[in-house]
């Protein structure tokens, strides 16, 4: 069997409050960093993007609600 693994992204590899850790990983990692717990609303997402803390965001209706997720 083929034991080759392909890693597409890391999802929230640090604590939600560790913005500096997210930025450090996002600028150095060989795979994209995906924010999850640190993206609770549209303002968080914009801040993560502005800071270069993630290349992707995991959006969940259960976490943010319909309207905030659409925003």
Summarize the structure.
The chain is mainly alpha-helical and 71 residues long. It has helices at residues 19-28, 42-51, 61-64, 66-70; strands at 10-11, 33-35, 56-57.
Structure, explained:
The chain is mainly α and 71 residues long. It has helices at residues 19-28, 42-51, 61-64, 66-70, and strands at residues 10-11, 33-35, 56-57. 41% of the residues lie in helices and 10% in strands. The chain has a three-stranded parallel sheet, covered by helices on one side. The model has no long low-confidence stretch (mean pLDDT 90).
> What portion of residues belong to β-strands?
5-15%
Biggest sheet statistics: 3 strands, parallel
Q: Which term fits the overall shape?
A: globular
Which spans have pLDDT < 50 for at least 5 consecutive residues? none
Summarize the helices and strands and which ones pair or pack.
Elements: E1 10-11, H1 19-28, E2 33-35, H2 42-51, E3 56-57, H3 61-64, H4 66-70
Parallel strand pairs: 1-2, 2-3
């Amino acid at each position: 069997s083929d034991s080759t693994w392909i890693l597409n992204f890391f999802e929230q590899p640090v604590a939600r409050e560790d913005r500096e850790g997210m930025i450090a990983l996002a600028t150095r990692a060989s795979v994209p960093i995906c924010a999850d717990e640190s993206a609770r609303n549209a303002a968080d997402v914009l801040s993560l993007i502005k800071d270069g803390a993630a290349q992707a965001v995991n959006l969940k209706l259960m976490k943010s609600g319909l309207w905030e997720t659409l925003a």
